[in-house]
Amino acid sequence: MEQTQKTDVIVTEDVTKVYAANGIPVNALNGIDLTIESGEFTALVGPSGSGKTTFLNIISGLDSPTEGKVWLAGKALSEMSGNELSDFRRDNIGFIFQAYNLIPVLTVEENVEYIMLLAGVPKAERHERVLTMLETVGLKGVANRTPTQLSGGQQQRVAIARAMVSEPTIILADEPTANLDSKTGADLLEMMRHLNSETGMTFIFSTHDPMVMERARRLITLRDGRIDPDETR
Amino acid sequence: MIRFSPAEIFREEGRQFGVTAHGVCLLIYMILKIAFRNIFRQKRRTILTALAMIVGFTLLSVTIGLSDGAYGDIISMFTRNRMGHIQVHRVGYLDKPSLYDTIDGYTAVGAVIQDVAGVEAWTPRVYAAGLGSVGEKSTAVQIIGVDVVRETQATRFDKKIVEGTVLAETPSHEAVIGKNLAKTLSAKIDSEIVIFSQGADGSLANDVYKIVGIAESGDDATDRTACYLHIKDAQELFVLEGRAHEIVVIVSNINQVGKITNAIEANLNDSTLDVAPWQAVAKSFYRAMKADQQGDAISRWVIMLIVAIGVLNTVLMSVLERTREYGVLKAVGTKPMQIFWLVICEVVIITLGSICVGVIFGTLANYLLSIYGITYPQEISFGGMKIKTLYAEVNIRCLIIPAITVMASATVVSLFPAIKAARILPARAMRTH
Predict the structure, then answer these.
(1) Which of B9, B10, B424 to mutate to test the interface with A (most CBs of A within 10 A)?
(2) What is the ipTM, given to two decimal places?
(3) Domain ranges in chain B?
């Protein structure tokens, strides 16, 4: 890893999110102040409804806070337009979802290269990057299959390849092992930890899977929309 | 802040390529690829959407084909069988017909007309009003002096004879009268009709003619008063030697009427003569026909509305079902406008395919209807013209108008689902199942 200096990748300041559930305001997040540095392999843990997914959505610009500010890679998300946010997400954030969320009409190769197509990367470079990435996640032989022809574990590997192929600043994974058996989940976690070590990319997971917590280097616990003291290993 | 170099390179390259023509081409390619695959992924929905469009296209095509066919037939009957495509009169005659307003030396005028490109035939006519008597019955008649040979060439005069024979080619004191006039006067073939009127020189014009034929022009009003004489007999009766009131011109292509009218006017170069196309001669008929055609537009709007509602329903359902997918696309960096175009592209692709199929069905339906037609239980009348069978016309309008209509309505109604898809909030969209 060539990283010589840690930088603040994510900074949140007094982030609050209030939802209206049947007309009754519900505080999903209550004044979260948090800093995440580059290269971290962090797990955001807490019981269901603690605000993990809401927090991930807000730090990725998929949702906006009711109050407070978020800086990602030095940019204030609240100051960006819809198109700027799209470009910013494309260039800086890789997503891994619990339900994989691959594009069903595209093949494995096309799903992985999709973000590069959006960025206008030339074909030869796209092809090379996709093959390298599929090899990295152990899916070299299934490039032409569609997501429905893959197992859950394979689909999640494709999602990881898609998230990482553009070498973003940060990878956000929302319950990435929730739909996988324990062995597949463990394998994927090992792979992501390895990629984190190799590339220096920042990984943030939301999870309540003990296996993920064991492997995380930093644990951030969310409870009722607030952060408990950090545990760094 | 320090960036990792591979990511930085990727981002810079991405931005660089994103604004180039190559980047735009890649986006179009990607949108089209996803759009095509989505179409084939939801086969049943695609077929339903396409069916709505194909049926709409075919119905529109047939409506236009039948409408054009009917009006074509009416115009053909009205012009070809009666008034011609172009008429030449003395200036002012059309507004206030008078026995004295004649075209002098009509043979020379006719020769000039015949030389104009596109003119198929011409025929002179003499008109006068009078009293016709057969036996003890009398009624007002309109005497129409015709050049039998030219009239037959131009307006198929011989085909109008329903009883007896056509007039002799040389003046023989013969008359052909309208069917309804024959009823009024209880006239039969070989009856004698006495005509009383006034000559152009002020003298009393009266003579006896032998009825050799009974004619049916297709226009009841004409058939109630028409009494056809040989033009020479009419000229002799009204003291109009070498003169006619009207020259009727038939052109080979009715769509060229305006152009040929101008050419005749230029070639005649006579300020005392008025050259008018059939639309100007029969203003009220033309206006009535145009108004009727506008009425047909209502049925087209109804068909278009049905197609639009069908398309809106299926496209909206498709967008709602794929809310989660659009959320994912947005989450990974797809711009709202790209999602908007993705939805529009899907609709446009289905529409183009449907139009291709619609062209085949529409043309086939119009072709069959142009041969077999639709026969009414009873004759219908328009502008005095009677129609029993409605035939369609196969023309480019039958394809162009439905194509534009279906494409426009499908695109317009898909704007709402497309905007809805483009404005989806990714976080909320990905929570849907």
Answers:
(1) B10
(2) 0.84
(3) 21-75+287-429, 92-270
